[in-house]
Design a protein that fits this description.
Largest sheet: 10 strands, mixed
Strand content: 15-25%
Helix content: 40-55%
Number of strands: 14
Distance between the termini: 25 Å
Shape: globular
Structural class: alpha/beta
Radius of gyration: 20 Å
Length: 362
């Protein structure tokens, strides 16, 4: 049965890194018999420029009809003067909400070839392999009321609402425990229960759900301490369970442990395993069009797509091993370059991965 992938390149470096991932996908179709078809759509600033909205109805329908979605990146200074509702990021948030993609999986894995690329000491980050699970459709990013106003003192004021229901916390907690079962059976839930009532409820519900998973060791940590511990002793964590805001911040922190944010993919899943897959980095408008961006996170996002939405672990492993081979050959984009390796462009890194992939077939 043919599977369909909706491809949304987006803004900035999005089209460049997505193009390299399409090359990998084409190699899988021609060399490994992968039975998928693709269709591209608009989102973010590119969609606004073309249609006047960052999230066209046609894009929502394309995503709804597809079996999975591959996204590049959205945003850039060009669109910052727009009203809040028209900014590129609203397209991304709308897609997450429209498809009910509530579970965000963000692995942080340090490849041994990139040990020197991390800014932390080798003994701190060597063999790093952790997973951050971020709730994606609730919390302060979506809570209401929100907005700006003039207060009683005639001063400008901005306000947002942090809110989670018991059911929202419960469903992401189940995902966390289930993934922990497949790893080291350790889950650390991140909150700020000492000062935020919403996350006090978060902790209570996670404890209740944890009783259904007696084989998983549950611990708790305040978010400020978790941020410190990520750079002090990151290997103490296996699975970290977080709300939307905390996960957004901590996952970017964890990304830099691996040497570059350009190395890390993510998956955003609904209750049935359908997902949107994207690199965790942004659109990097400062380097867009220069052919220097690292496409590896996007290619790894394709691997996650195959593993989690298509249940094709074998093909996903082929991609991951091809990336390892390209790194073994010394290929490095500028963000992961070190002395003694070969600095390559975005397209050259894509070509190296494709060559390594096809070599596995032969």
């Amino acid at each position: 049965m043919t599977k369909k992938i909706a491809i949304l390149p987006g803004d900035g470096i999005g089209p460049e890194i997505v193009n390299e991932t399409i090359k990998v996908l084409d190699a899988l179709r021609s060399g490994f018999g992968l039975n998928v078809e693709t269709e591209q759509g608009l989102i973010g600033g590119a969609a606004y420029d073309a249609t006047g909205t960052p999230f066209p109805e046609a894009t929502l329908k394309l995503a709804q009809d597809a079996d999975a979605i591959l996204l590049g990146a959205v945003g850039g200074p060009k669109w910052e003067p727009l009203d809040y509702a028209l900014r590129p990021e609203r397209g991304l948030l709308g897609l997450r909400a429209g498809l009910e993609l509530f579970a965000n999986l963000r692995p942080a894995l340090l490849y041994p070839q990139l040990l020197d690329a991390s800014t932390l000491k080798a003994d701190v980050v060597s063999n790093l392999d952790l997973m951050i699970i971020r709730e994606l459709t609730g919390g302060i990013y979506f809570g209401k009321p929100r907005g700006r106003r003039i207060n009683d003192s005639n001063k400008r004021e901005g306000y947002n609402t942090l809110v989670y229901s018991e059911s929202e916390i419960s469903r992401i907690a189940h995902i966390g425990f289930q993934i922990a079962r497949k790893r080291q059976k350790r889950l650390c839930s991140i909150d700020k229960a000492n000062v935020l009532e919403c996350t006090e409820l978060w902790r209570e519900v996670v404890i209740e759900v944890g009783k259904e998973y007696p084989d998983v060791a549950l611990s708790h940590m305040y978010v400020d301490n978790a941020a410190m511990q990520l750079v002090r002793n990151p290997k103490q964590f296996d699975v970290m369970l977080t709300d939307n805001l905390f996960g957004d911040i901590l996952s970017d922190c964890a990304a830099m442990l691996t040497g570059s944010i350009g190395m890390l993919p993510s998956a955003s899943l609904d209750k049935n395993g359908k997902g949107m897959y994207e690199p965790i980095h942004g659109s990097a408008p400062d380097i867009a069009g220069r052919n220097v961006a690292n496409p590896i996170a996007t290619v790894l996002s394709l691997a996650m797509l195959l593993r989690y939405s298509f249940d094709d672990d074998a093909t996903a492993t082929h991609i991951e091993q091809a990336i390892q081979a390209a790194l073994d050959a010394g290929c490095r984009t500028a963000d992961i370059y070190s002395e003694g390796t070969r600095k390559v462009s975005t397209t050259e890194m894509g070509d190296a991965i494709v060559s390594a992939l096809l070599a596995r077939k032969s």
